[in-house]
Structures are given as structure tokens and as C-alpha cells.
Amino acid sequence: MTDRNLAVGNDLVRRVSLAVEGGVDMVQLREKDLSRSQLLKLATELRNAVGTRALLIVNGQPEVSAEAEAQGVQLGEGSMPVEAARKLLPPGSLVGRSVHGVETALDAASEGVDFLVVGTMYATDSHPGLPPGGPALMRAVAQGCRVPLIGIGGITRDNLSEVVAAGASGIAVIRSILAADDPGAAARGLKQSLTDAWRSRPLLTNP
To answer: For the chain, which residues make up each domain, given as ranges?
Structure first.
């Protein structure tokens, strides 16, 4: 997930490209303070830099996603319905939603989202006023949802195995990669830890 304020040297596009080389397979463009035209410009630059090596998902603006030829959109917990977003996107585009509780996760799954971003897992500067739900939240959501779940919030190499063991299909990070001295190396380290966590995860079953 992007935050150009954390990109060392103010070179977000280059650092994202390095992260993709290191194993990142989905990039979420999340820059809420940009105007529509600025966001579209940045989305297009990222799309050109990333190419087919990773998916590009635009936060909250399906029209920008479509115009930039990104792969989909990430909706906030209380934003537009999934069906409305799909009408603004090309066929086959992905629609995800951020959720912070079991009830909203179940509602989003029933809307037909392609994936859920579940958080926050641990305390994070990105959402300072939101109490972390921890792996227990991920576990509760996983018991009721059959869509891929991505954990977010304070996740590092040291704790990501707990999130995966609780049911996450993947993780989302910001600072761990963008603020790193070497974004590519940071991504490779996270990807290796994530692969190890997948291999050791216990079998999960839904009711």
C-alpha cells in the first residue's frame, strides 16, 4: 500500500517498482489527499512502472482505476456498494473492501467482493485511533468468509505468521517496505517469511 510521504527521497514510483521486483504482487494506490487528476497521473505512472508484474488497485475511485487501466478498486468500509463500483469498472476488474469487524466483513462478502482487507491487526501509525483487533479478528472473519483475506496494520516479518495462521491469505504493509533502505530486499524478506508461514499454517475449515 502506498504512502508517498514515507517514500525515502520522494521517489514513490521507483520504490514501488523495486518492491515488485522483490516479490510484491499487488500494489494499492492510497493517496487520499491528491486531486483526481493528480491521482490519475500517479496511477498511470505506477501502471507503466509495474506493467504486468503485479496488480494495481486504486483506493476508493473506480473511475480513476478504469482510466489508468488498473486491475481494480479498494473500497472503504462505508463507501459505495460493490455493485455500483463494478458498473464503473471494466469487466473482470477486482473489487475489494476494507473491514474492521466481523459483521461488516460478512456484509461485504455477501455483496460479492473479490477480497477483504482486514484490520487493524496490530497498533499502527496509519490508524492511530483504531484499537487493533489482532489475529483474533482475522480468525473470526475467516470462520465466516470464503473470500481471500488480507491482513493489515502493524504487520512485520516478526508477527505475520500469526496473521496467516489465523486465516489470512496475504498481508498488506506500508512502512516495512516504503521506508526501508532497500525496498526490494525488504519485499523479498517479507515474501520469504510469508511463504514459510503458508507452509506451516494449520488446516483451516469454515463452518
So the answer is: 8-200
Q: Which helix (H) or strand (E) holds 200?
A: helix 183-200
pLDDT at position 181 is 93
Residue with cell 492511530: 128
The CATH code of the domain at 8-200 is 3.20.20.70
Alpha-carbon span 2 to 31, nearest angstrom: 7
pTM for this structure? 0.93
Q: Which 3 state secondary structure label does DSSP give 130?
A: coil
**Hey, what amino acid is at 53?**
R
Q: In what order do the strands lie in the sheet with 115-118?
A: 26-29, 55-59, 72-75, 94-99, 115-118, 149-152, 170-172
Torsion of CA 65, 71, 76, 81, to 10 degrees: 90
Residues in the chain: 207
| Predicted local confidence at residue 97, as pLDDT | 98
Give the rounded distance of the alpha carbon of 149 from its chain centre. Answer: 10
* Number of neighbouring beta carbons within 10 Å of residue 72: 25
pLDDT tens-digit profile of 28-78?
A: 999 999 999 999 999 999 999 999 999 999 999 999 999 999 999 999 998
